[in-house]
Amino acid sequence: MCAVRQNGADFRRFSFLFSAFAAWTSPILSALLINQLSERQSGALLLEQGYPLVLHREKFMQTGKSDLTTAFAEVLQGVATTELAADTVQAAKQRILDMLSVTFDGLEEPASAVAFRSVGPSDGLCTVIGCSATAAAADAAFVNAVTSHTTGQADCGGGGHPGTFVVPVSLSLGEQHRRSGKEVLSAIVVGYEATQRMHMAAAAGLHSNGFRAVPAIGVFGAAAAASFLSGLDTRQFANALNFAANMAGGFYEGFGHGTIEGHVHAGLAARAGITAAALAGAGGETSPATLDGAAGFFSTFARDRDYEPGALTAQTAGLGIHSAWSKPFPACKANQETMRLIRSLQPAGFAPSEIERVIVTRPARDYDAPGIRAEPPYHNTVQVLMSAKFTSIATLLGKPVTEFRYFKESFGDPNVEAVARKTTLLTTDAGDETVTVEVVRTDGQTLTLCSADVAHLTWDTDLEARFQRLASPRLHGTARSVLDVVAGLESARDIRKLMQLVRA
User: Fold this and answer.
1) Which helix (H) or strand (E) holds 437?
2) Confidence band (pLDDT; 50, 70, 90) for 64?
3) What would the pLDDT profile of 152-211 be if each residue is shown by its tens digit?
4) What span, in angstroms and rounded, lies between the C-alpha atoms of 493 and 399?
5) CA 394 to chain centre
6) What residues contact residue 33 under an 8 Å CB cut-off, 6+ apart?
7) Which helix (H) or strand (E) holds 428?
8) What is the pTM of this model?
9) Phi, psi at residue 141, to the nearest 5°?
């Protein structure tokens, strides 16, 4: 990735001098200087998750402003007001089905119950998914967001798990404002775009400083979706993004202990986005340098790390929503490829007595979170979903690892823990993306599973089938009706029909 180090004190001195100069020079010359600075910082291409960014030269000249947040808002408004291509509409529908599926699967989880109790009583008409109760938009979005995060199977993309905050906000505000299905789909696309761009701009720096993407970047996606559905103009939209920046935060410590903090992150992002849009809509003003000022978002959250402000306004090869994907397994994103490799090449699994020892080797980034290297015993569901050893061995033993219920009921599985104790985790050399699982059997033979031997390691997720399986116990016969409404959502005059269907 080509990114800006900001070159420490030298860059700060240059920024100070430039700011002083810009105060008295002409707006046109200021814009030219900013444009040149952006080009020097930006370099060539940003490549991550198949989402190439080509830096948008003369962006500030086109907007006539030197305000990064306003330029960011204009880009997002451009996405919102452009007719969505058929594949983008379909992608947004898939994100809705993904979020609804994992929300229904998480309704019985403690974090969901805590979130619901925390907002009651709430006066409003917005749907709390899977419940007969309704609430104010911010409260409903908060509860739905928390619930959607509880099973460890929320989608992946910019901002970590964008479906857990963008979709709840879009559904709740769409319901409150009686928006059409087409408008809600556009809001989802805009929210994913905001998080993808901010992810490209700052995710690496934020992560290096200990901030988690869901609450630190998710606020921007939630605010973007909320701003569009609230009908904010460009100035208000930019203010909403800046207010959201002031609500960013959240870190990883709770994952190692298995507490609900990580689940609440999604709810906090969703609520922050709605609050940010409300503040902006009520006339709240923010600093034009909230994002890129000397004491702003980038300088504070990504302090002394690489970040790329140009990604917020860069020309792109595609919309951010197309980079999102659905997890095949209810487990930490870092464990997905290892589990997928094992299930693809050894679907039948082994008996515990057949295994002498196991060696798992994968890139260092796949160990870069609390709880990933945790040793048995495990004491709760979150710990096993995070654990590289538990998820790998459970898959290797042929356990039903596509089902959250297995992890919920079997985090103390003695067979998995016994083999986990005989498992070694290793890291590949820098630049090597290969995942390898070596199984030394008790008969002396060694089986080696290697991702490099699989041309296209994929695990397609049938989201309609998953929704039917996870939602039917609550919705009974109406699950099919929900699928039909989502399938034709771009033609729906009002999102309320969908929301009424997903109540208990």
Assistant:
1) strand 436-441
2) very low
3) 999 999 999 999 999 999 999 999 999 999 999 999 999 999 999 999 999 999 999 999
4) 44
5) 26
6) 18, 21, 22
7) none
8) 0.87
9) -65, -40
